[in-house]
Known about the structure:
Layout: H1 2-5, E1 10-13, H2 21-34, E2 37-40, H3 48-55, E3 60-62, E4 65-66, H4 73-90, E5 95-96, H5 101-113, H6 124-133
Parallel strand pairs: 1-2, 2-3, 4-5
Helix pairs in contact: 4-5
Amino acid sequence: xxxxxxxxxxxxxxxxxxxxxxxxxxxxxxxxxxxxxxxxxxxxxxxxxxxxxxxxxxxxxxxxxxxxxxxxxxxxxxxxxxxxxxxxxxxxxxxxxxxxxxxxxxxxxxxxxxxxxxxxxxxxxxxxxxxxxx
Length: 134
């Protein structure tokens, strides 16, 4: 299946439907052969897919925190502040959201005031590599 998709850098496991051990093993072998990674948002902290990737030293990241539950830019800003705290404590942390207008406003505000001051903002691939070394 991965061969038919075109240029990709990895797979995002977005819900718990990716739970069959055989499906996960097949996915991991396909990803490792291609030098790709896994972003597992199935549960906070990473689920079966994340743990399977870690067990074979495949670059991976757990979902961390989704910060778009509230469509209020102030709530987004506060969620990013909590994520920055988690990143300082854990060494790396992933946040993700839909690109809705209020979400983007809160993200822009946080980026202009806080980004790269208390924590470094980095691409997901960089976070995956850092988590893989921990």
